[in-house]
Every structure is written in C-alpha cells, then in structure tokens.
Amino acid sequence: MSNEVAELVEDFHEGRIKQVVVLSGAGISVSANLPDFRSPGGLYDQMRKQGIATPESVFTADFMVEHPNIFYKVMRQLRTEDIHPTPTHCFIRLLQDKGLLTRCYTQNIDGLERKVGIQERKLTEAHGTLSRVLCAKCKKEHPKEKLYQSNDTDGVPRCEECKGLLRPDIVFFGENLNWSYPEVKADLENVDLVIVMGTSLMVNPFAGLVNLIKNGCAILVVNRFMPKTLFSVRRRRAMAAKLRGKPPPRKEAFMQGDCDMSLVWLANELGWNDDVEGLLKEKPQKS
After folding, report:
1. How does DSSP assign 139-160, residue by residue?
2. Do residues 22 and 58 both lie within one domain?
3. Most buried residue, 39, 155, 160, 253, by CB count within 10 Å?
C-alpha cells in the first residue's frame, strides 16, 4: 500500500471523507464482458477488423442515416440486457448507501450504474444511455428492445408513428453532453474526494472535468495507468499552493491495475467487504 493510499484509508476511517464524486469510464465494465472503446482488442479494434476504417464515425447522426445497417449491427454488439454490474459498480453503490456519494459522472452508455441501483439524481450519464430509445425524428420514446428489431420494409428499426429511425439516447459526436456545467462545477468544488476509475481521460470535454477539482480535494485514481491529464492538474495544484504560501498538495493516490481487484481490496480495508459481496448477490435492477 502506498503512503497516499494509506493516508486516504485513514481519512475514511477518521470521517474526513464526507462527499465523494466518481468519474468513471469503460474500464469499469470490462469484467462484465463489455469491451472498452480504445484499448487494444477493444470495440474500435473489433470494428476495424469488420472493415470500418474510422470507427468513431459510426457514432454520428449522419452515419446512422447513411449506413443504418452497419450502425445497428454495431449497436447489437453493445446490448446489455444480460450483463450484470461488476464489483466496481457495487463499490459506487456502497458510497451511495453510506451517504458519501455526491454524484457519479460516467462516460459509459451501458446502464450498469442503473442496474446496480445508483439513484437517478446521483447519476450523470455524460454520453447518454442505451437504456432509452427515441425516434430520431419525432423524439417519441420506445421500449429499448425495439432498437434491435428489424422493420419489414428495409430491415432497420423505425418509429411506430412517423417511421423515423430509432436511435439509442446516446450522445453522438458533435452533440452536447448530458450535464449541467454549473452542477458539475459545484460538485467538484465542494467534495472531499474525487475517484477517477477505468478511464484514460482522453476524450474531451469529459477529460476536462479534472481541471475543476479544488486544490484541497483528495484524488484517487483506480486505473491501469495514470491518465496524462492528471499530471497537468498536479502542476496546477502545486503552483496554486506555492503562490498562496501553502504546503504542496499531496500526490494523487494511485491504485494501478484491475478496477475490481483494487476496489474490493479497498472495500476490505474500509470494512465494507461483506457489503460488496451482498450487492453482488442482489438481483440487478431494471435499467
């Protein structure tokens, strides 16, 4: 255990951690057999092997209209009806149950935070969700299963009323993220701990959220590597402390490796291990 992690565990035990914000990415769902997007062997690599030269272009409104058969084929690869939350999702739920979770900001569209029981008011799905399906034309909401059902006319899912294409309620490239900036800013300026988990923080504007973290806030990174974005945050925090004549902020606590293993270990250190096991046995909630 590093000194920074040990200090953070002590902060929990001594009651100095009262409000926590989670910033999560696709890495927290990999153990649920959902591929992340950018890692070797991830979704984008799989799509390239299927002949899609620029995978990012699939997640645009224009591509959906121009190449609907390819678009819906990719959507079927992301189905989550039979996918269960991971120990990492259970850890986030425990933060909520113990009154510590201010908000979970997730880049994920898989809806596993919903399945594990994170309350809607504490969940911001920045890139939208596969749990809702809308008509791209009239915005009528449809049962999510309709996204995977073919229309008899052209083989793609269409609205029952206006015959427009159905789309998951996800944020396409070029669209605004699902959040309120004042709310994000207030959250990150008023918490005691920000946990960054399972994300490379390479995609803006989500990656830029770490720049809103106040200087006195502790940061825990649970990831396979330290995101480069956080190095600039460290420099900014150190410079601000120097200008104010204060001690330099402590380094980010870094738990390198698998999210599930790291957070089950942390739960055990905090005395929450039985709680994690109990949540893993719970029947997933409907997303």
Report:
1. --EE-GGGGGSPPTTTSS-B-T
2. no
3. 253
Answer yes or no: do 263 and 202 share one domain: yes
**At 116, which helix (H) or strand (E)?**
helix 112-116
Number of domains in the chain: 2
Q: Does residue 189 lie within any of the structural domains?
A: yes
In a domain, 287, yes or no: no
Write down the catalytic residue from 13, 67, 89, 127: 127
Residue 108 lies in a domain: yes
- Are 97 and 193 found together in one domain? yes
SS (H, E, C) 215-271: CCCEEEEEECCCCCHHHHHHHHHHHHHHHCCCCCCCCCEEEECCHHHHHHHHHHHCC
The tokens for 135 are 């008509």
Structural domain contains residue 36? no
Q: Using 50 as the pLDDT threshold, list the residues of the chain that sit under it.
A: none
Whether 67 sits among the annotated catalytic residues: the reply is no
Instruction: Give the pLDDT of residue 164.
Output: 93
Report residue 235 as tokens: 């420099």
- Residue 228's CB is within 10 A of a number of other CB atoms, namely 11
Q: Can you give the CATH number for the domain in which 166 is found?
A: 3.30.1600.10
User: Given this model, what pLDDT does residue 6 score?
Assistant: 94
Classify the phi-psi angles of 64: left when phi > 0, otherwise alpha if psi is within -120 to 50, otherwise beta.
alpha
Residues 106 and 228 in one domain: yes
Euclidean distance between CA atoms 209 and 199, whole angstroms: 12
Q: Which domain holds residue 149?
A: 43-79+131-170
Q: 251 and 201, same structural domain?
A: yes
Q: What integer pLDDT is reported at residue 287 of this predicted model?
A: 65
Give the single-character DSSP code of 31. Answer: G
Q: What angle, 0 to 180 degrees and rounded to 10, lies between the N-to-C axes of helices 259-269 and 3-13?
A: 50
